[in-house]
């Protein structure tokens, strides 16, 4: 361990709340799929800062947009018009299918808070005071603030903080009968991730998503899709649900929207958005000039470089290579995911060790619990880099 990393780790231990189990590596520079540590050592990044850098590290267009705007004006509040914010709202609403309004937040969990408030407001206004409950899927992840944590159906993350916000119901994913049985007049919304991310990369089946959309329409309930991890071309289309031929009433966004700067968004149909009245919600920093300039540059480059198409092609290649690895090593029982959001289920509880060894070999991986490894590379990832990953994985499986 170099001196800089040693000193930084000591400061972290002395002054940070012990919430994160940090790895003994410090990245100081990035370029596309590559990261470099303080010793100048190169790594391939298969996590993208947990799905937040779809365009790859240090993209020149995003860097230029940040530099230009930050030299002009960094903050003015939401009490005034901001040119980039207005353009970004138009771009996001259009990507989402048009006929939509946007609210900018600063993170995923904040976007989910906004969506919960909007769904409740819509339910109460249209259907009465008792219409405020929201159904989410077991194993879902929607964030860590108290509202979003109440939506997050993972007891291990919730238990230490009860009592949570009332009014959340949880059903198994891809089980339509369970949903049909629970959606009554007190329910204002069903909220789902199109592919559960933190829960282990579990996609909704296409039949389930279309049936949920139909059920929501029949019962007059909103469909809220949390596209925080799946959004911005991660699975191919701009938003993952667009490959299923359905629309969301409310969508939550964050992560890769500004390629690593903090921003989130609630996107709702005009009709649903109208439930929010002036003063119902707000944010000091949401939609600031710098982050909106970065987001505009990010979304433009994602489209120009056709990275949604690349996510489909390279994602299929990654899955195929992982299936071959499963057959060769017997270490993998399942390969799943959509586009470049992929995971493997291991036969042995060695995921932490595999990620640790891979890091030592120059590959950044993310394990979910003991038996799942998740792959979320920047969408600029190439087949040759997947080959390097697979070579390392095979060697690491042989060691652990
Ligand atoms: C689907 C989903 N929703 C919400 C969140 C919370 O986002 P943030 O960490 O920006 O608050 C995440 C983060 O992993 C996520 O994957």
Describe the protein:
The chain is α/β, with parallel strands linked by helices and 400 residues long. The protein has 2 domains: 3-55 and 306-399, Aspartate Aminotransferase, domain 1, CATH 3.90.1150.10; 61-304, Type I PLP-dependent aspartate aminotransferase-like (Major domain) (Aspartate Aminotransferase, domain 2, 3-Layer(aba) Sandwich). The protein has helices at 3-15, 48-51, 60-72, 83-95, 108-127, 146-151, 155-158, 176-182, 206-219, 270-273, 289-304, 307-329, 351-360, 383-399, and strands spanning 27-31, 34-37, 42-45, 100-105, 133-137, 168-171, 187-193, 195-196, 202-203, 222-226, 250-253, 264-269, 332-338, 341-346, 363-364, 366-368, 372-375. The strands form 4 sheets. The chain has a 7-stranded mixed sheet, sandwiched between helices. The chain has a 4-stranded mixed sheet with strand order 1-2-3-15. β2 (34-37) and β3 (42-45) form a beta hairpin. The model has no long low-confidence stretch (mean pLDDT 98). The protein binds pyridoxal-5'-phosphate (PLP).
Tally of alpha and pi helices:
14
Bound molecules: pyridoxal-5'-phosphate
For the record, the CATH class of the largest domain is Alpha Beta
Q: Give the rounded overall mean pLDDT.
A: 98
Query: What percent of residues adopt helix (DSSP H or I)?
Result: 40-55%
CATH fold call of the largest domain: Aspartate Aminotransferase, domain 2
The radius of gyration over CA amounts to: 21 Å
Unreliable runs: none
Within the largest sheet, what's the order of strands? Answer: 4-12-11-10-7-5-6
Could you tell me how far the N terminus lies from the C terminus, measured between alpha carbons in angstroms?
23 Å
- What is the CATH homologous superfamily assignment of the largest domain? Type I PLP-dependent aspartate aminotransferase-like (Major domain)
Which structural category do the helix and sheet elements fall into?
alpha/beta
Gross CATH architecture of the largest domain: 3-Layer(aba) Sandwich
Largest sheet at a glance? 7 strands, mixed
The overall number of domains is 2
């Amino acid at each position: 361990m170099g001196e800089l990393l040693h000193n930084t780790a000591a400061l972290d231990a002395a002054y940070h709340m012990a919430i994160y189990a940090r790895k003994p590596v410090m990245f100081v520079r990035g370029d596309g799929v590559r990261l470099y540590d303080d010793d100048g050592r190169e790594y391939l990044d298969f996590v993208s800062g947990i799905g937040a850098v779809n365009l790859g590290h240090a993209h020149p267009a995003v860097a230029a947009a940040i530099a230009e705007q930050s030299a002009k004006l960094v903050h003015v509040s939401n009490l005034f018009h901001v040119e980039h914010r207005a353009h970004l709202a138009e771009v996001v609403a259009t990507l989402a299918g048009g006929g939509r309004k946007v609210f900018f937040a600063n993170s995923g969990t904040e976007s989910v808070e906004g969506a919960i408030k909007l769904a409740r407001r819509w339910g109460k206004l249209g259907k009465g005071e008792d219409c405020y409950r929201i159904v989410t899927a077991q194993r879902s992840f929607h964030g860590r603030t108290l509202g979003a944590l109440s939506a997050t159906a993972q007891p291990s993350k919730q238990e230490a903080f009860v009592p949570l916000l009332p009014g959340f119901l949880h059903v198994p994913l891809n089980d339509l009968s369970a949903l049909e049985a629970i959606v009554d007049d007190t329910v204002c919304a069903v909220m789902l991730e199109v592919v559960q991310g933190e829960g282990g990369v579990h996609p909704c089946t296409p039949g389930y998503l279309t049936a949920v959309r139909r059920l929501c329409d029949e019962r007059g309930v909103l469909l809220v899709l949390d596209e925080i991890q799946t959004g911005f071309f991660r699975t191919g289309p701009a938003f993952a649900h667009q490959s299923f031929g359905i629309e969301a009433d409310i969508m939550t966004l964050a992560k890769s929207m500004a390629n690593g700067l903090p921003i989130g968004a609630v996107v709702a149909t005009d009709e649903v958005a109208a439930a929010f009245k002036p003063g119902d919600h707000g944010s000091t920093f949401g939609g600031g000039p710098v982050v909106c300039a970065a987001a505009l540059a990010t979304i433009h480059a994602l489209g120009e470089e056709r990275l949604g198409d690349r996510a489909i092609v390279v994602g299929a290649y990654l899955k195929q290579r992982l299936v071959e690895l499963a057959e060769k090593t017997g270490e993998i029982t399942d390969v799943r995911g959509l586009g470049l959001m992929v995971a493997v289920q291991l036969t042995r509880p060695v995921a932490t060790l595999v990620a640790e060894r891979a890091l030592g070999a120059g590959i950044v991986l993310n394990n979910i619990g003991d038996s799942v490894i998740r792959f979320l590379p920047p969408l600029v990832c190439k087949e040759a880099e997947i080959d390097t990953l697979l070579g390392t994985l095979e060697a690491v499986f042989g060691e652990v």
